[in-house]
Amino acid sequence: MLDLDFSFYNWAMISDFVLKGFYFSLVLTLIATLGGIVLGTLLALMRLSEKPFLVWPALVYVNGMRSIPLVMVILWFFLLVPLIIGQPIGAEISAVVTFIAFEAAYFSEIIRAGIQSIPRGQVMAGEALGMTYAQNMRLVVLPQAFRNMLPVMLTQTIILFQDTSLVYAIGAYDMLKGFETAGKLFGRPVEAYLLAAVVYFVICYSLSRLVRRLHQKIAIIR
Amino acid sequence: MNWDWEIFFQDPGGQHTTYLEWLMSAWGWTLSVSLLALLLALLMGFMIGTLRTLPKHPGWVLFGTGWTELFRNIPLLLQIFLWYHVIPALVPPLKELSGFVLVVLALGFFTSARISEQVYSGIRALPKGQFYAAQALGMTTWQSYRYVILPRAGRIILPPLVNEMMSIVKNSSVAFAVSVSELTLFALQVQEETARGVEVYLAVTGLYVVSALAINLLMGQIERRVQIPGLVLPGATGGGH
């Protein structure tokens, strides 16, 4: 019954099939993290602004995104973006746009919690020094908030890396697809999925250990 | 943009009389997968999370931690492929199981790791004195957990647990990849058949949102019902899928 044969996994095969996918998964994770944080900060500031015309759009966007499965969001963008811009786009570009928009909702919640974790006194002290809202945010609140929420953000990034496998739904070529394609081609799908599991596990587990270390190191003690 | 909602009353051919009926059946599959996986996940999650806190049992602690890390660090889609393609190949008797059962197992075990993490931190959040007090009253370890630790930890983790319940409905969408005829597969297939993607996706998305809201409302009721009067609980933070 145990008839496994990993011999087809040589370096040539890995560089042909897996590396291309790994590269896409990695780039997608990085762009979505950076884009998600920028857009997420904006959404978080809108929600905390106490101005209804800013609060409501952000609230609807964030809660809407968070109540829809990521696969459906991926399908929506793949369907809508070509309709809106009037020409077909590739699955890869569609995936990048989707992940930025989707992750922004999750990052905005993390950032909002981070900003709210800063004591009111800090904001008041900034105001007492004559800082404007923007200066106060940039120089006092956000640097402390980001430091507090860095571990949660990195954990979200690890989840994001795992979620990139869902581009399967629109046929984009990520790492999982790389393993799958190789497995099909060599008639060894069982081994391909097993090896994929090992690779994902090693990457995600080591990253989460790193995050835990970092968490202990940088937490601001109050 | 012109709407065409009529398509839901057309006959898709095959076993369903209208697309609407097919949609409802797909919703049923989504809910069944989610509910069964949730039961499995709660059972395993509470067990594993508790094992990880047992004093003087390093073997069980290691097992619990290993379980949690294993199911947390592999993408759900890949876990479903593993259950579908790999495990039946390694354990032939499992070949008999349908895709539905395999997806329930995959989603249940995946979520059990996340719930175990919450149970673990819920128990750790209790003052150590609670356990000692139970022991001082002559309770066995089992009794201390059953009557003191778990009832309190369970209430502490109720809010993140509700999030997890809403996540499981969303995560059940990944079942499309192994052809369980739930909402996402419906969306993909009917979009292709009818080319009315927007209407189809709107309907499916709406049902996902309704499901999540229903869980939220129901659990809000339960949360109020089981609340210990006068006890203020710390809130939960964001993140997740």
From TrEMBL, chain A:
Q: Which GO terms describe its cellular component?
A: ATP-binding cassette (ABC) transporter complex
For this UniProt entry, the molecular function terms from Gene Ontology, in alphabetical order, are:
transmembrane transporter activity
- Give the record's keywords alphabetically: Amino-acid transport, Cell membrane, Membrane, Transmembrane, Transmembrane helix, Transport
Stretches assigned to the ABC transmembrane type-1 domain: 22-211
Topology within the bilayer? Multi-pass membrane protein
Its annotated compartments are:
Cell inner membrane; Cell membrane
One GO BP annotation here? amino acid transport
User: What SUPFAM superfamilies does the database record attribute to this sequence?
Assistant: MetI-like
Regions crossing the membrane: 22-46, 67-85, 91-111, 152-173, 193-212
Role description: Part of the ABC transporter complex GltIJKL involved in glutamate and aspartate uptake. Probably responsible for the translocation of the substrate across the membrane.
Quaternary structure note: The complex is composed of two ATP-binding proteins (GltL), two transmembrane proteins (GltJ and GltK) and a solute-binding protein (GltI).
Family membership, please give it: Belongs to the binding-protein-dependent transport system permease family. HisMQ subfamily.
What is the protein name stated in its UniProt record? Answer: Glutamate/aspartate import permease protein GltK
Provide the species name: Azomonas agilis
UniProtKB/TrEMBL annotation, chain B:
Keyword Transmembrane present in the record's keywords: the answer is: yes
Q: Which InterPro entries match?
A: AA_ABC_transptr_permease_3TM (IPR010065), ArtM/GltK/GlnP/TcyL/YhdX-like (IPR043429), MetI-like (IPR000515), MetI-like_sf (IPR035906)
Name assigned to this protein:
Amino acid ABC transporter membrane protein 1, PAAT family (TC 3.A.1.3.-)
A GO-annotated cellular component: ATP-binding cassette (ABC) transporter complex
Q: Where in the cell is it found?
A: Cell inner membrane; Cell membrane
- Tell me the keywords, alphabetical order: Amino-acid transport, Cell membrane, Membrane, Transmembrane, Transmembrane helix, Transport
Q: Does the keyword Nucleotide-binding apply?
A: no
Give the protein family.
Belongs to the binding-protein-dependent transport system permease family. HisMQ subfamily.
Please give the organism: Azomonas agilis
Q: Any transmembrane segments, and where?
A: 26-49, 70-91, 97-115, 200-219
One GO term under biological process is:
amino acid transport
- What NCBIfam families has UniProt attached to this entry? HEQRo_perm_3TM (TIGR01726)
Stored Pfam families: BPD_transp_1 (PF00528)
